[in-house]
Amino acid sequence: MDAVFWIVLGVVLAVAEIFTTTLFLIMFGVGAFAAAGAAALGAPVALQAVIFAVVSALSLALARPAIRRNTRSALETGEQPFGVEAIEGSTAVVLESVDAERGMVKIDGELWSARSFDATQAYAVGERVQVIKVRGATALVWQNDISAPGELPETRG
Prior knowledge:
This protein has about 160 residues and is an alpha+beta fold. It folds into two domains: about 1-70, no CATH class; about 85-155, CATH 2.40.50.140. The chain has helices spanning about 1-20, 25-40, 45-70, 75, 85; strands spanning about 90-95, 105, 110-115, 130-135, 140-145.
């Protein structure tokens, strides 16, 4: 019966981790599963609690920093960004007018659906915008501070 308690606790903590994504609760879930293993082997409740505490503490102290270190973005580590991280911050050209609902931009030769980052702004065809964030397959764009709307970089003087 003790093993069932620890398994249920471990599952609840693992499910809660899915919603928090902090890599904190899952470490206690690991401890709960270790305690469930001890309970299945017939360990007394006091030993199960000690195993839960020790395994949870070791998971927090050893595994979590290693996982966090390997999940930092390329911008945080100074490495060359790739994928979506490489697109964020780049310049795009508006192909279909962009507003809070819809639009289309061209980013490094690729077509992307786009929305205005600021719901009150709209961008006309030909304007240059900056990609602020990517959500799914949609680029959230903002006015480009480098060139005026419709101005090509070669014509600035």
